[in-house]
Amino acid sequence: MYFTIDNESDIRFAEKGKNVLILGVGGIGMCQAAYLLKTLEYRVLGYDLSIYDPALTLLKNVGIEVINDVDQIPFDDIGFVVIGNSVTRNHLALPKLEAKRIPFCSFPKLLLDLILDVRFRIVVSGTHGKSTTTALIAHLLESNSLPVNYFVGAVGKNYEPKIKLQSQELAVIEGDEYDSAFYAKFSKFFYYKPSLLLVLPLDFDHRDIFPNEEAYLKNFCKLIRETPSLKTVIIHSQSLKKLEKEIPSNIEIFEYPNKNYRYEIDLQASEILVKIFETEYKVKTHLFGRHNYENILAAVLACKLTLERFGKSLINHDLMNFNPLKKRLEIIFNSDNFVLIDDFAHHPREVKSGLEAIKDRFKGYKICVFFEPRTNTSRSKLFEEEYSESFFNADMLYIKRPIVRFNDDPSNMLDATRVIKLAGKKGREIYEVNQEEIMRCLKDLDKNEKWVVCVMSNGSFDNITNLLCSIFSESKNLI
C-alpha cells in the first residue's frame, strides 16, 4: 500500500519545476498552505469539488488556480501532492498518483516540515479559542521584536492569510485534534511535538472521530504524556480538572485563570488588566467577551514565558492594532436599528459564550440568532438539550434544518424545532436561505426595539451574512 505514514515525503525536497497539487484545497488550512507554498516559489495547483468563503476569496486574491475535475489534473506535471483530511481513500486521483509514485504528505506533515522546523514550538490546543489565541500569541511576539513562524486555522478580517515563515528559532501553531488524513487516523497535533503546550477549555466534540468524551479527553492526555520535548503546559482551570490525574509530574503546569494568573475588566477604557503574580499588564483591545479575555490571558502568559526564554521582556502588550479573525464575533454592519455579527460558533459552549459577549457589549439591544448546525456533531441529537440552554440570551431564534448526508442516520439528526421549543424562544426552523425567507423572519422582529442579528455557523450558511448585509444597507428602516 502506497499511501501510508511511512511513505510520507518532506515537502522541502519537492521539485519546484513541477506543480504541487493540493487535494482538498477548500479547507481553510489547506488554502493557506497553498498560499505559503506559492510564496516559497512552488508552482501550486488546487483541487476540490466545491469551495466557499473564506477559502474562495483567499485563493482568488493570491492567484491560485483551482480545478474540480480529476480529468483536468496534469498528472505528468505533478511533482508533489498534499492530501487534506477531506480526501477519502476512494478519491479518483489517488490511483493515478500512486501509479506514478508521486511524493505526498498530509497537511500537518507539511506544517511540521515548513513551520515547525525550529528550536522552540508553541502549540495551542483545546476545543475552543485555538485560532484567536494562536493569532494573539503571534501578534504579541512580533510586537516585542521576536520573529515567529505561525499558522492560524482562520484568516484575517479582510481574508489575509494567517501563515508565515520568518524564524529558525520559534513557531506557534494551532493544534487541531481532528484527524490528519485517511491514512493517518490520529489528531494533527501529534505531528507537532510541542515545547510549550496550551490547553484551552475542553468539551466533547467531533463525535465522528471520538466515540465519547472519555476518548476525546484521552487524546489530549496522550499528547502530554507521549511528547518528550514537552516541558511546560499552560492549561485552563476547567481543562485541568479533567486532565490533572493524567499529567506527568515532570511537566510544569501554569493553570489559568486563578489567583496567580487572572484578569480584571475595564470596559469603559476598552482594556483588561492582566495580572501574572505581582506583574500587571494593561491590555487595550477591541475584542469583547469573557472567553476572549481568557484567551488574552493565556496568550500574555505564553508570551511572557517565551520572551523570558529568549532573554527578552514583555514590553508591548497593546492589542488595539491586532487584526481580528474573520467570523469571530465579527461586526459586519452597524446602523441605528441593526447590528449584524458573523460568528464561527457551532458548539453549545461557543454559542453560549458568544451570546453572553453580545449581551454585555450591546446593552439595551434585543438579539436575533440565525444558527446553522453544520458539523457532524452539531447536526446530531447529541447536544439538543445543551443548545436549548446556550440560546438563553437570544430573543428570536431561527435554526436551519440540518442537511442529511449520505452517511447520516436520519433518526439521529438534530430536531431544530425541538431545540427552539426547549429554549422557550420565539422563532422557527428554516429550510432554505433566500431573500423572501429572510425578510419573513425579519418581519417578526419588534419594530420598537434595536436588534443585534447574529449569524452562527462554521461555514458559509448559504451566504446569509451577505444577504442580511444587503437587506440592511438598502433599507435602514426595515422594521
- Find the count of extended strands (DSSP E, 2+ residues): 23
Mean of residue pLDDT values: 94
CATH third-level topology of the largest domain? UDP-N-acetylmuramoyl-L-alanine:D-glutamate ligase
Distance between the termini: 62 Å
Q: From the alpha carbons, calculate the radius of gyration and give it in angstroms.
A: 23 Å
Counting DSSP H or I runs of 4 or more residues, the number of helices is 13
Strand content: 15-25%
Classified in CATH, the superfamily of the largest domain is Mur-like, catalytic domain
What is the percent of helical residues? 25-40%
Number of domains: 3
Q: What structural class do the secondary elements suggest?
A: alpha/beta
Question: What overall form do the CA principal axes indicate?
Answer: globular
For the largest beta-sheet, the strand count, sense and barrel status come to: 7 strands, mixed
Strand adjacency order, main sheet = 8-7-9-6-12-13-14
Q: Can you tell me the CATH class of the largest domain?
A: Alpha Beta
The CATH architecture term of the largest domain is 3-Layer(aba) Sandwich
| Poorly predicted segments | none
Quick recap of the structure?
With 479 residues, this protein is of the alpha/beta class. The chain has helices at 28-39, 55-62, 94-99, 107-114, 130-143, 213-225, 237-243, 290-309, 348-361, 384-390, 416-423, 435-442, 464-474; strands at 19-23, 43-47, 65-67, 78-83, 104-106, 120-125, 149-151, 163-164, 170-174, 179-181, 184-187, 196-199, 232-236, 252-256, 261-266, 271-276, 279-284, 330-334, 338-343, 366-371, 396-400, 426-430, 451-456.
